[in-house]
Amino acid sequence: MYKLYYAPGAASLCVHLALIELRADFELIALDLKAGEQKRPEYLALNPAGVVPTLMIDGAPVTEAAALLMILAERHPEAGLAPAPESAGRQGFLQWMFYLANTLQPAFRHWWYPHEIAGEQNSERVQAEAGHRIGLAFDRIDAHLQEHGPYMLGTHYTVLDIYAVMLMRWSRNMPKPALEWSACRVLADRVRARPAWKQLYAAEGLSEWA
Ligand SMILES: N[C@@H](CCC(=O)N[C@@H](CS)C(=O)NCC(=O)O)C(=O)O
């Protein structure tokens, strides 16, 4: 049984969706980020960064959303949510997982928490730059999907799509949301049409961007 520490709509969303898609046995533990529950000592003992998600796997805490998606896909290979090691699609899978984790997700962190890297006085400039970088990343993802879609790896739905669509969702209130890129929209619509997405929304109490 897995145990997921999450907050509605946060980086834990992709792990939650993967657990549902895998029909895994899991328990949810909600953290109130506004109340700072993620910074309490008992949670910091599990996740020293004080962020969600944390997934308890066999009783041990594991962190980092992208790593968790890859770990879950590998622990449940029968679900086919990632290309097997040494299979044809593996290189592209790793490349895009790392692109999302190293480039797009951090830009969102700068968008949501612009004071973190250069102080409150520079928040506006940091946010503007983060918004620009997010746009460039969606340009690149959209170009890839136009040529190789409808899913990130072609015809196979994988945790990469789960991850990409969570990041697209995060842009929903930005000046140019991801759905304005046509191939991104096709991918988002496919993922949002899945029963697992509806189950996720019900469990996290979400309504926006359904
Ligand atoms: N690199 C981490 C980042 C997680 C992250 O930034 N989570 C945000 C929510 S989307 C969070 O917990 N924020 C609360 C805080 O920073 O205090 C991951 O991918 O798991």
Written overview of the protein:
It contains nine helices and four strands, in the order E-H-E-H-E-E-H-H-H-H-H-H-H. The protein is globular and about 45 Å long. The protein has a four-stranded mixed sheet. The two termini are 28 Å apart. The chain has helices spanning 12-21, 41-44, 65-75, 90-112, 115-118, 123-148, 159-170, 182-192, 195-204, and strands at residues 2-6, 26-30, 54-57, 60-63. The protein has 210 residues and is α+β, with helices and mostly antiparallel strands. The chain folds into two domains: 2-80 and 197-204, 3-Layer(aba) Sandwich (Glutaredoxin); 90-194, Glutathione S-transferase Yfyf (Class Pi), Chain A, domain 2 (Up-down Bundle). The protein binds glutathione. Glutathione binds next to helix 4.
Short description:
The protein is an alpha+beta fold and 210 residues long. It has 2 domains: 2-80 and 197-204, Glutaredoxin, CATH 3.40.30.10; 90-194, Glutathione S-transferase Yfyf (Class Pi), Chain A, domain 2 (Up-down Bundle), CATH 1.20.1050.10. It has 9 helices and 4 strands; from the N terminus they run βαβαββααααααα.
